[in-house]
Write the structure tokens for this entry.
Amino acid sequence: MKLLLNLLSFCLLFSTAVAAEQEVSTTATSIPAASSIKEPTTAIVTERNTLADYPLAPGDALEISVWKEEGLQQQQILISPDGTIIYPLIGTVIAAGKTITELKDALAAKLADYIADPSVTVKLMNNQGNAIFVIGKVNKPGQVFSGRRIDVLQALSLAGGLTVFADDDNISIQRRAGNEIKVFPFDYSNVIKGEDLEQNILLEAGDTVTVP
């Protein structure tokens, strides 16, 4: 009898242990491994930050609305060559060089003289004003458009890169400042080797990159 009782006790303990082990195994497999959890993408954040820093330029097209103001909804406006826009009620406003946020704040400040607590929305419809010209011995010469400021290497890349006949040591960037033209040298072979990196300047709308 004693032997039978010991055998029954052993069977009971064994069944309990197996059940507990299965429960732990089930719980563990229901929790995804840390390596399988995907990190949130940063692409949208990067795009938003890029647009927030973009300096508006002549030729850019904007859509401007003032909330609850029927006559000021979805106004399609092109930034003029002198960098200004003309908006109802307030007239001429300087837009070129400002970010979208800065222009929105400037419009709201001026509209506050006519509208209580104006809520202004500014959208960039196209950035055709931020044109950089790449000419000479590149594979795709012409205008280069960008939603942000780019440097010389990036502009050359967007122009398809240099041809085999390019004089890559004597590239230049021309920038008009009023009635003057500033010229910046660019030695392609040195820059791609990590030398003279100060030559890889940020370009401005209207700059011309010449590859002889």
User: Anything to note?
Assistant: The two ends are 106 Å apart (CA to CA). The domain at 131-211 is CATH 3.10.560.10 (Outer membrane lipoprotein wza fold like). The helical segments are 2-29, 43-53, 100-111, 152-158, 188-192.
